[in-house]
Amino acid sequence: MDFEATFLPVDKYGLVSPESLAKVIRPETILVSIMHANNEIGTIEPISEMAAICKDKEVIFHTDAVASVGNTRVDVGILNVDLLSLSGPSLCAPKGIGALYFRKNVRLMPLIHGGIQESGRRAGTENVPGIVGLGKAAELAKTELPEKEPYVRKLRDRLVDGVLKKIEKVTLTGHSAKRLPGHASFCFEGIEGESLIFMLAQNGIYVNTGSACASKALKTSPVLTAIGIRADLAQGSTVFTIDSDNTKEEIDHVLEKLPTIVHRLRSISPIWGKEIPAYEEGVCS
After folding, report:
1. Most buried of 14, 28, 98, 265 (most Cβ within 10 A)?
2. Is the pTM of this model over 0.85?
3. DSSP string covering 201-252
């Protein structure tokens, strides 16, 4: 059976408009799937609003909460979703385990046919150690989150404010407030992200250039392209993630080393200082 997929645009912060979703749902629409939070730019979507639209139109709504579970509050009742997927490693659970939440009475075709494991939804031997590990990790995350979330948000804001104040020609990607509490992502003009993370690592600072899922790809991030970031600027993308074991002193260490490293890389960059068209909302090059 063939299906037609409709892709929704996002604004410069990576937000999907609930109004745009309502306009594209057709009588034959059967499923809507939208990330709860983007792991590359940190933006948190208005999931409950879009789920309400789908419920009103009797369309199943799924959200990918891999980046948000364990980092911010995720309540399927408040989100009002039918399906929610999460990953164990995001919760510090063993690799190779994840979960899919089903709202009662939601039925889907099995992913793998065979036995009746997983209530007939996925045949195969169940990963019992992984399941136990995921359950314990979720229990610990729920206990720690009330203290963790405001703590890492304060460190994140310290990092963001410091980077934007100390370094010129840097763009904060994603929404400044509607984002994961321990997530900060930037595009540094005139440098290449891989060189930046290498030099940061030499100073004991470990970051990423974008989505871990696409870390081997040598092409412009589709996420940054979608929010209107120029291809040359996207090459300088860097993602910082902050957890409860990080400290104010470590943030200050980043703010001490990062400006010097950026300056050094720009001094040898073949594009730094050249005339580049100004960023325009919704315009990509």
Report:
1. 14
2. yes
3. HTTT---BSS-GGGTT--S--HHHHHTT--HHHHTTEEEEE--TT--HHHHH
